[in-house]
Amino acid sequence: MAIREITYLAVALRVFAAALLGGLMGWERGLKNRAAGLRTYMLVCVGSCLIMLTNQFIYQSFGTGDPVRMGAQVVSGIGFLGAGTIIVTRRHQIKGLTTAAGLWADAGVGLALGIGFYEGAVVGAITVLIVMTLMQHMDSKMHRKSRSLDIYFEMSSNVPLGDLLRYVHNNSFEIADIQKEPYMDLDDGVRAYTATIKVKKRRLQEDLLEEFMQAEGVIYAEAL
Question: What pTM, to 2 d.p., does this model score?
Answer without folding.
Answer: 0.64
